[in-house]
Write a structure and sequence with these properties.
The chain is built from six helices and seven strands, in the order αβααββαββββαα. InterPro entries: Knr4/Smi1-like_dom, Knr4/Smi1-like_sf.
Length: about 190
């Protein structure tokens, strides 16, 4: 089911003529090497993204993944590098894999300790101070998160964000009291 959410998100981008950029598609062996290095199993929808694009970029969204420079590439967009760096800084647990920076402080992770029956990992927004400073569950899978992100980006285009008329009064992923809750992250 979540692979379908991932596939629908990609199809929606294409149908809306959004430019989709990738790096070098990861092979099954390269994905196994990433999992071995990180000592966890990646969710199926994220592995599909790695196979289809390597790393994925559309609009201003840049999802970390596999890069043509390989597993040891020292770039933030290399999921191995980003994960090892965040682990070393104690910003994430050993079961979390960062895959996207918010652009406003927090970042997004898959928590591979929380695997559902479909093999998918829960998605969290992590405080800039790290997982011990606060996390908010956003989705049950990478596919579900990507689908919501695509909808958010397309909604932003419809609302005039593309022309610089951005409405700063409501953040992405808003719910009641969002900024009030976020203020705790900066205490």
């Amino acid at each position: 089911m979540t692979i379908l959410l991932y596939e629908n998100a990609i199809r929606t981008l294409r149908e809306n003529k959004m430019e989709i950029l990738g790096t070098t598609c990861a092979t099954d062996e390269q994905i196994r090497r990433v999992e071995a290095r990180l000592r966890l199993s990646l969710p199926p929808s994220y592995k599909q993204m790695l196979s289809d694009f390597g790393a994925l970029e559309f609009d201003t969204t840049e999802i970390y993944g596999w890069l043509s420079q390989g597993i040891d590439a020292k770039f933030t967009t290399n999921v191995v590098y980003a994960t090892e760096r965040a682990r070393d800084d104690d910003r994430i647990s050993r079961t979390m894999v960062p895959f996207l920076a918010s652009g406003y402080g927090p970042f997004f992770v898959m928590d591979c300790a929380e695997i559902g029956a479909d093999g998918e990992a829960a998605i969290y927004e992590v405080s800039p101070g790290g997982h011990q400073k606060g996390i908010d569950r956003l989705a049950d899978s990478f596919g579900a998160f990507l689908s919501e992100e695509v909808d958010r980006v397309l909604q932003g285009r419809d609302d005039g964000w593309e022309s610089g008329e951005e409405d700063l009064s409501s953040p992405p992923y808003s719910n009641g009291g969002y900024w009030k809750e976020r203020a705790k992250d900066f205490d």
